[in-house]
C-alpha cells in the first residue's frame, strides 16, 4: 500500500440565496492572491481540491467561458508539484440559467464538464459535484439555498439530477482523458436515536449512502430506498442509472464533529431551536457527540463503514474543526491517526485532506446570512498579511513525516473529554463499528505552559481556559516564582522546562502607583524584562501584557500598534518601559496591549461593580469623558492562547472591537443584564479625584487584523453568563445531567 498522502483545499462554495451568489473564494481573498498556492505547496500537500466552478467560468451563458483565473491557478498548482482535483459544482445550484431541479440540468452540466476537460486535458482527478446528497438536502428539502424549496419529491429530483450530472460529466471528461478519475465526496455521518425514533434513524442511515449507492448502480428493486423513490415516479430514472453506473475511483469521506446526529423524542430536554419533526412526531435533533454515551463512531467509524460497504479506495476529503487552535490541530491529527490505524488493518485509505486552508465564512448559519462570522483555518486571512497558524505547522509536520507535535496540542480533544456533554446523557444501543480505543487519547505533554500570576484575574482566567482546552499548565504565585528574584525565575524554568511562559503578574493598582512609583516600575518593568530575558536565553516564547494607558489620548481615533507610547501616569510608564525593554531583548516575545477588563468570574471589575450597584436600586456614577475599548477576559484569553500556539511574536492589540465611554459601557451592560440603564449617571473624570491622569481617548484598534469579537457581542455573552450565575449553580447543572456553559469552550463546525 502506498504512503498516506496529505491533500488540501480552501473553502470554495458558491451558493445562491435568492438572487445573490455568495462566493467563499472571494470572501477569503484567495480570488486575488495567487501566492496562496505557494503557501499551500509549502505544507507538503500532494494534491489540492480546487474550484473550476460552473458558476464562475460560465455565469451568464452556457457557451461563453472565462478561463483566465483558472488557467493561471491550475498552471501554478502544476508548477508547484501538486495534483489538482478539479471541482465543477461545490454546493452550488449552477449559473443563473439553471437550477438543481431543472430537468435539463444534467446535460447542461455535462456540456460544461466537456469544455473544462478540453481546456485542462492533463487534469486526472475530478469531483464534478461535491456532496450531492447534502446539497440536495440544503437546497430542496430544507430550503436554505436556491431554489429554496422544501419538498421531498423535489429533493430526490435534485439528487438524481446531480447524480446524472456526475455520470454524464465523467463520460465527457473521459472522452477527453480516458484515465480521468472520479473522486466522489459526501458528508458521511450516522444518526442515533431513542427507541421511539428508530424509524427516523433507520431512514436517515439508509439515505446517507444514496450518492454512492446510485453511482455504484445499487439502487435497484430490493434496495431500502427503491420503493420510496419509485413511489415518487423515479423508477425509470433509477433503472437507467443502475444500467449505466459510474462507480467512484475514490470515495471522499467528509466528516465533521456535527456529522453524527442524535434524535430524541423527549423534546422537553432541549431548547426550542433544536426541535424539528416528521409527519409522525416532534423530536430534538442535536449533535450526537453532545449527548450520546458511549460517543458516536466518528470519522474512524464512518471510514470503517464505507470500506465495509463498498471496498473502494477512501480519502478523508474534508477535515476541519472550527474551534480553538489546539482543538483544530487535535482534530486534524486524529483524522491522520485514524487513517493510519485503518491502513494498518488493511483499509485502503489514500489521503487526509486539510480542508478550509483559508478558513470559512458564515458556515455557522449554513451560508444563509452574510454576517462576517469567520473560522480560522491553516491560515488566518483577517490579518494584513496572511498569517500561518499552528494548524499550518502541524500540516507541514505531517506532510514531512518528521518533528514533534506542539506541546499544547497533545491532550485529548474536547470531543474526547467530559465537557463534550451539552445535554442530559443518553445511552445509545445502535450497533456501530467502533474505532479502536487503545490509541485514541494522546499522552499529556511533559512540558507544560508556565503561567506566572496565580492571584490575578488574568492568571486565573488563563488557567481556567487551559483546563477547558486540555492544555497542560502550571500556575505559579510569588512564593514559587517572584519577578524580582532572578534565581527563583531560573529555578522554575529549569525545573519545569515549559514550552512557553505567560506573564500575567504585575502591579495593577493604577492610582496607587502614583505614590509607589518605584514598586510599580519594579514589578511591571524590571520584573517583566527579567522574566523575558530568561525566556530569551532558553529560546522560549514569552507573552507579556501591556495597557492602553501607555497612550496620552491626544488622537481623535483609536490607537494602533505602530503608534508611539506617551503615557500620562506611572502605571502607563511602567508598561511602556516593559514593552521597550522586552522588544529590545529579541527572542520570541509576544506583547499584548489590552484594556478595561470585564469578566463574569471576577467580582472586582467595573462591569460587575455597576451591576451590583444597580441591582440594589442605587445610582452608579461613571466617567462620560473617557473613551476606552473594554475587553472581555474570556475573549482576550482565547485569542492570546491561539496566538501563542501559532507562534506569533511582536506587539499586538487585543481588545473587543469598539470604542465607548465608561458611562455608556455601564449603560449597555445594564441594559443587557436587565437592569435600568437610566440609573447610570455620567460625570467628568475630574470629579472622581483620581490621583493618576487618564487619557481622554484610549480606544484600541489594530492594523494587524481584528481577532476579537465586537464589544456588543461580548457584552451579550457577559450578561448571559451573569444571568446564569444568578439563577443556577454549576452543581445543579451537573446534577441535572447537563454541562454548565463555559465561555472558553468554543467548539464550532459546520451543521449538517
TrEMBL record:
- Record-listed E.C. numbers: 1.1.1.133
The reaction(s) this protein catalyses: dTDP-beta-L-rhamnose + NADP(+) = dTDP-4-dehydro-beta-L-rhamnose + NADPH + H(+)
Q: Its annotated pathway?
A: Carbohydrate biosynthesis; dTDP-L-rhamnose biosynthesis
Origin superkingdom: Bacteria
Pfam families, per this entry? RmlD_sub_bind
Q: Which GO terms describe its molecular function?
A: dTDP-4-dehydrorhamnose reductase activity; hydrolase activity, hydrolyzing O-glycosyl compounds
Q: Does the keyword NADP apply?
A: yes
Question: By its UniProt entry, which Gene3D superfamilies does this protein fall under?
Answer: Glycosidases, NAD(P)-binding Rossmann-like Domain, UDP-galactose 4-epimerase, domain 1
Class in the EC hierarchy, top level: oxidoreductase
| Residue ranges of domain RmlD-like substrate binding in the record | 449-703
Which cofactor is essential here? Mg(2+)
Q: Name one GO biological process term.
A: dTDP-rhamnose biosynthetic process
The UniProt keywords, alphabetically, are: NADP, Oxidoreductase
The residues that cross the membrane are none
What this protein is called in its record is dTDP-4-dehydrorhamnose reductase
Taxonomy of origin reads: Bacteria, Pseudomonadati, Pseudomonadota, Alphaproteobacteria, Caulobacterales
Amino acid at each position: 500500500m502506498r504512503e498516506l498522502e496529505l491533500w488540501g483545499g480552501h473553502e470554495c462554495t458558491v451558493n445562491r440565496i435568492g438572487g445573490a451568489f455568495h462566493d467563499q473564494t472571494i470572501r477569503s481573498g484567495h480570488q486575488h492572491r495567487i501566492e496562496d498556492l505557494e503557501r499551500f505547496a509549502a505544507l507538503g500537500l500532494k494534491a489540492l481540491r480546487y474550484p473550476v466552478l460552473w458558476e464562475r467560468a460560465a455565469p451568464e451563458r452556457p457557451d461563453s467561458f472565462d478561463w483566465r483565473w483558472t488557467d493561471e491557478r491550475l498552471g501554478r498548482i502544476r508548477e508547484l508539484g501538486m495534483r489538482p482535483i478539479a471541482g465543477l459544482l461545490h454546493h452550488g445550484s449552477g449559473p443563473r440559467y439553471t437550477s438543481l431541479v431543472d430537468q435539463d440540468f444534467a446535460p447542461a452540466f455535462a456540456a460544461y464538464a466537456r469544455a473544462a476537460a478540453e481546456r485542462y486535458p492533463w487534469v486526472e482527478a475530478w469531483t464534478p459535484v461535491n456532496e450531492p446528497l447534502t446539497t440536495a438536502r440544503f437546497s430542496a428539502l430544507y430550503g436554505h439555498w436556491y431554489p429554496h424549496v422544501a419538498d421531498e419529491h423535489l429533493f430526490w429530483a435534485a439528487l438524481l439530477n446531480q447524480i446524472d450530472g456526475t455520470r454524464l460529466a465523467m463520460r465527457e471528461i473521459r472522452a477527453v482523458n480516458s484515465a480521468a478519475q472520479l473522486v466522489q465526496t459526501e458528508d458521511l455521518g450516522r444518526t442515533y436515536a431513542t427507541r421511539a425514533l428508530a424509524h427516523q434513524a433507520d431512514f436517515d442511515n439508509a439515505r446517507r449512502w444514496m450518492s454512492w449507492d446510485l453511482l455504484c448502480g445499487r439502487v435497484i428493486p430490493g434496495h431500502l430506498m427503491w420503493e420510496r423513490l419509485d413511489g415518487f415516479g423515479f423508477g425509470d430514472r433509477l433503472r437507467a442509472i443502475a444500467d449505466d453506473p459510474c462507480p467512484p475511483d475514490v470515495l471522499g469521506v467528509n466528516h465533521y464533529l456535527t456529522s453524527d446526529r442524535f434524535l430524541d423524542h423527549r423534546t422537553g430536554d432541549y431548547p426550542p431551536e433544536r426541535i424539528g419533526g416528521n409527519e409522525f412526531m416532534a423530536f430534538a435533533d442535536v449533535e450526537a457527540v453532545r449527548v450520546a454515551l458511549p460517543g458516536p463512531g466518528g470519522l474512524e467509524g464512518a471510514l470503517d463503514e464505507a470500506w465495509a460497504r463498498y471496498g473502494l479506495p477512501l480519502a478523508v476529503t474534508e477535515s476541519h474543526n472550527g474551534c480553538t487552535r489546539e482543538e483544530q490541530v487535535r482534530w486534524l491529527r486524529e483524522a491522520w491517526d485514524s487513517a493510519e490505524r485503518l491502513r494498518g488493518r488493511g483499509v485502503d485509505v489514500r489521503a487526509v485532506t486539510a480542508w478550509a486552508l483559508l478558513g470559512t465564512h458564515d458556515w455557522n448559519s449554513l451560508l444563509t446570512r452574510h454576517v462576517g462570522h469567520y473560522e480560522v483555518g491553516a491560515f488566518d486571512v483577517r490579518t494584513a498579511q496572511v498569517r500561518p497558524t499552528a494548524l499550518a505547522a502541524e500540516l507541514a509536520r505531517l506532510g514531512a513525516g518528521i518533528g514533534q507535535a506542539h506541546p499544547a496540542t497533545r491532550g485529548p480533544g474536547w470531543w474526547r473529554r467530559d465537557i463534550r456533554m451539552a445535554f442530559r446523557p443518553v445511552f445509545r444501543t445502535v450497533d456501530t463499528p467502533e474505532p479502536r480505543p487503545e490509541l485514541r487519547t494522546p499522552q499529556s505533554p511533559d512540558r507544560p505552559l508556565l503561567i506566572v500570576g496565580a492571584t490575578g484575574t488574568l492568571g486565573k482566567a488563563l488557567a481556567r481556559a487551559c483546563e477547558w482546552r486540555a492544555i497542560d499548565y502550571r500556575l505559579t504565585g510569588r512564593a514559587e516564582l517572584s519577578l524580582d528574584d532572578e534565581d527563583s525565575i531560573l529555578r522554575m524554568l529549569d525545573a519545569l522546562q515549559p514550552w512557553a511562559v505567560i506573564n500575567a503578574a504585575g502591579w495593577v493598582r493604577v492610582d496607587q502607583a502614583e505614590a509607589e512609583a518605584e514598586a510599580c516600575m519594579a514589578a511591571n518593568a524590571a520584573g517583566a524584562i527579567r522574566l523575558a530575558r530568561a525566556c530569551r536565553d532558553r529560546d522560549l516564547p514569552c507573552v507579556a501584557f501591556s495597557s492602553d494607558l501607555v497612550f496620552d489620548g491626544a488622537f481623535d481615533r483609536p490607537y494602533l500598534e505602530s503608534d508611539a507610547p506617551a503615557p500620562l501616569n506611572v502605571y502607563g510608564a511602567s508598561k511602556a518601559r516593559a514593552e521597550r525593554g522586552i522588544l529590545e531583548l529579541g527572542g520570541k516575545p509576544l506583547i499584548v496591549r489590552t484594556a478595561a477588563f470585564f469578566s463574569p468570574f471576577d467580582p472586582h471589575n467595573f462591569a460587575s461593580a455597576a451591576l451590583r450597584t444597580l441591582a440594589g436600586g442605587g445610582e452608579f456614577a461613571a466617567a462620560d469623558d473617557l473613551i476606552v475599548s473594554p475587553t472581555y477576559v474570556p475573549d482576550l484569553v482565547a485569542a492570546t492562547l491561539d496566538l501563542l500556539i501559532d507562534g506569533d511574536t511582536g506587539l499586538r492589540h487585543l481588545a473587543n472591537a469598539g470604542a465607548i465611554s465608561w458611562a455608556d459601557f455601564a449603560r449597555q451592560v445594564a441594559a443587557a443584564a436587565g437592569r435600568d440603564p437610566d440609573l447610570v449617571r455620567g460625570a467628568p473624570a475630574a470629579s472622581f479625584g483620581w490621583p493618576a491622569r487618564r487619557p481622554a481617548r484610549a480606544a484600541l484598534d489594530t492594523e494587524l487584523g481584528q481577532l476579537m469579537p465586537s464589544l456588543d457581542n461580548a457584552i451579550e455573552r457577559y450578561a448571559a453568563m451573569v444571568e446564569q450565575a444568578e439563577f443556577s449553580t454549576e452543581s445543579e447543572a451537573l446534577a441535572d445531567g447537563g454541562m454548565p456553559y463555559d465561555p472558553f469552550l468554543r467548539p464550532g463546525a459546520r451543521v449538517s
